[in-house]
Every structure is written in structure tokens, then in C-alpha cells.
Write a structure and sequence with these properties.
By secondary structure, the chain is of the alpha/beta class. The strands form 3 sheets. Strands 7-6-8-9-10-14-15 form a 7-stranded mixed beta sheet, sandwiched between helices. Helix 4 packs parallel to helix 5, helix 9 packs parallel to helix 10 and helix 12 packs across helix 13. The longest helix has 21 residues. Keywords: Amino-acid transport, Signal, Transport.
């Protein structure tokens, strides 16, 4: 009888372990979750990167409201605390400091810009608070430490595909290059473009630089026009990119010469700023509004119904980021930063609006990029 009882309890223990390993049930997850779970978000809501930050804020609020209403975390609710970094490194540092020390958040979404992330992420790493960057694509971000993640594809994962697809379709062999040399994102994007162009044997006729907040690009563009490139590769944020496109067309650079860029192009604000001069601009992207990915149609409809406009890539990545963090919290069955971090590091094939989403060993995202082109003021897939 004693032996049978021992076997019985051993089997019960094995079953308990099995449930823990093979499927954290909603009931198990809910046991360790209650009350409010403080989550921070740092967006550029003012300053020159507000074109990206406003949609990130909207999408993160939408996602939190959906998750709290659905009971995904049982009786626990996410409390989202949003800070404006003013599009500056100093603003991001102050926002992180406030969220970590005053609000005791377990994780922070953002900041909007890679420049700011380089400055603020070390604060979270030192405090062992998770950061999930949702628009940081420059190199050297996740390398800051093991609490730093991102769901935004790095330029190194997007631009090789962009160059290959545009080469195949447009058949170019000679390009001119322009990039901002005083910003981590634009300099990082240039570094990737430079490497890929060299690997593909594309001749670079000239490389021209500019600074953030520059408004006059006529000297660089006049030189470029005289060299007759087949395409122009640009690593720039939206405001500078719009100025480059506008002035380039006004100087007589033909529409057959496309402006090809990266993540900085992926805001509808670009077409609003440059108007008809943005037509034909091509960019590598992590998301397309018409994607047939899990929940994407519902997300687009919900965002438009609530905010009166379509979401952009930055909204989609912020929305996905909230759900990715919520999934990790639920699976961990805990709001402890280390426990949630351990789950984040192992995410594989999670259904998101970005597609099947995984984290690699470097804490970088893995999913398929796209290439899009502006036609009639809107993004379409480049095919």
C-alpha cells in the first residue's frame, strides 16, 4: 500500500512538472498575477521625431486596453505610464529614470529613436528592467545588455532584401548615396547600405552627407544630378528625407530615379511633407498595412475606428510590442522582470501583427521584411 501511494504521488509530481514545461495554462499564469502591472513607454511626442512617436503612443494604448478588457492576464491589469522624451537623448534619460525609480515599472517600450536608446537603455540594464525597443533599428542596441530586446527588425535584416529586390526589378548598376552623419540611426543605415552595395557590385558615384534639421540639400543634390545616377540611396529621418525628395525633383532629377531608403521613410508623414515629390520612394519595412498576418486586419480596423487614420509601421511595432510583453508576463506567471525576461528570450513563432515572431540568441527579432513604394500618396507593396 505504501509503495502504491509513493507511485501515485510521484506521478502527480511528474504531471505537475509536465504542465509547467509544456504549456503554462491560463489558470497557472493567473495564480501569480494580480493588481496593476506597471509598464512604461517612452515616445517622441514632441520634437522632430514626433512623426513616429504619436502613432506609437496611440497603438500602445489600444493594445493595453484590449489586453485588459480581454482578461488575458486574469484579474491583473497593465498600467501603462507614458513619457515624452522630446526627441532628445536627455529627454529619454530623464524618462527612463522617472519610470524606473518613481513608477517601478517592470518593462519599458521604446524609446522612439536609436540615438536615444543608446543613451537611456544602460539605465534600465543597470536596474535590471526590461526594455523592448519597437523602432530602434541601428546596430549596438541589444548589445547593451541581457535585459534589452527589440521587436523592430534591424537595418541589417531589412536592407539586403531591399537592395536585392530593387536591383532585380529596376536593374540599376550606378547609384548616389546620401545620409545623415550625426545620428546613430541614419549613420547605421548608411553602414548597412554601403556594405550591401559593395557586395552586390553596385558602383557608388558619390556619397553626400547632411545633419539632422538641415533644410537645404541643394548643393549635394546638384552634384548628384550632374553624375546621372540610376537611383539615389538615402538614410534619413522623415523630415530630412522629405526635403531631399522635394528639392531633388525641383532641381530636375527625373522620376525614373527613385529615392530608396530604410526605416526613416516608413511613416505616412513622409508623403504628407513631400507631397507629389514622394511618389516612387521605395523603402525596406517590417510591416505592410495589407499584410495577411494574424490579427492585422482587426488591428488596422480598430486603430482607424479609434483614431480616425490608418496605422503605420511604427504603430504596428508598438502594438505588437505590448502583446509580446503581455505574452511573456502571462507565460512567466509573474510580473518579475527576470522571469519575464527569461520568457522573452525564448519566444518562438508567436502570432503577431508583424507575422510569426521569434527572438534570436542576440535578443533581436526574427520575421520577414517587406519592400514598399509610395503610389498616389500611399504605401503599396513593391513588386
Amino acid at each position: 500500500m505504501k509503495a502504491r501511494s509513493t507511485v501515485f504521488f510521484v506521478l502527480l509530481a511528474l504531471l505537475a512538472v509536465g504542465f509547467g514545461v509544456y504549456g503554462t495554462t491560463i489558470a497557472n499564469a493567473e495564480k501569480g498575477l494580480e493588481g496593476e502591472i506597471p509598464m512604461g513607454a517612452v515616445w517622441s511626442l514632441t520634437g522632430d521625431a514626433a512623426v513616429y512617436g504619436s502613432s506609437q503612443k496611440n497603438a500602445s494604448i489600444l493594445a493595453v486596453d484590449e489586453i485588459n478588457k480581454s482578461g488575458m492576464l486574469g484579474t491583473a491589469k497593465i498600467k501603462l505610464i507614458t513619457e515624452d522624451d522630446r526627441s532628445t537623448k536627455e529627454g529619454a534619460i530623464a524618462a527612463f529614470d522617472n519610470l524606473i525609480k518613481k513608477n517601478k515599472v517592470i518593462a519599458i517600450l521604446g524609446p522612439t529613436l536609436s540615438n536615444s536608446a543608446k543613451a537611456s537603455n544602460p539605465i534600465a540594464q543597470e536596474s535590471k528592467v526590461i526594455v523592448l525597443g519597437v523602432s530602434n533599428t541601428a546596430g549596438g542596441i541589444v548589445e547593451i545588455g541581457d535585459f534589452i530586446f527589440r521587436d523592430s527588425l534591424p537595418e541589417s535584416a531589412v536592407q539586403p532584401n531591399t537592395i536585392q529586390m530593387t536591383m532585380d526589378k529596376l536593374g540599376y548598376k550606378k547609384v548616389a548615396v546620401m545620409y545623415g552623419d550625426d545620428d546613430v540611426f541614419t549613420k547605421g543605415g548608411y553602414d548597412v547600405f554601403k556594405k550591401v552595395l559593395e557586395e552586390k557590385g553596385i558602383q557608388v558615384l558619390t556619397t553626400e552627407t547632411f545633419k539632422r534639421k538641415d533644410t537645404d540639400f541643394s548643393a549635394q543634390l546638384t552634384k548628384i544630378k550632374g553624375l546621372n545616377p540610376e537611383q539615389i540611396i538615402v538614410s534619413a529621418l522623415a523630415e530630412e528625407a522629405a526635403g531631399i525628395m522635394t528639392q531633388g525633383r525641383q532641381l530636375g532629377i527625373p522620376e525614373s530615379v527613385h529615392f530608396i531608403g530604410g526605416n526613416g521613410f516608413n511613416s505616412p508623414k513622409l508623403a504628407q511633407l513631400a507631397g507629389p515629390f514622394a511618389e516612387g520612394a521605395i523603402s525596406g519595412a517590417a510591416w505592410f498595412i495589407g499584410n495577411d498576418t494574424p490579427g492585422n486586419k482587426a488591428f488596422v480596423e480598430a486603430y482607424k475606428a479609434r483614431y480616425g487614420s490608418n496605422p503605420d509601421q511604427f504603430a504596428a511595432q508598438a502594438y505588437a510590442g505590448v502583446y509580446i510583453l503581455a505574452h511573456a508576463i502571462k507565460t512567466a506567471g509573474s510580473a518579475d522582470s527576470k522571469a519575464v525576461r527569461d520568457v522573452l528570450a525564448k519566444i518562438k513563432d508567436l502570432d503577431t501583427v508583424l507575422g510569426k515572431f521569434s527572438m534570436n540568441e542576440k535578443r533581436d527579432p526574427v520575421h520577414s521584411p517587406v519592400v514598399q513604394i509610395i503610389k498616389n500618396g500611399k504605401f503599396e507593396l513593391f513588386q
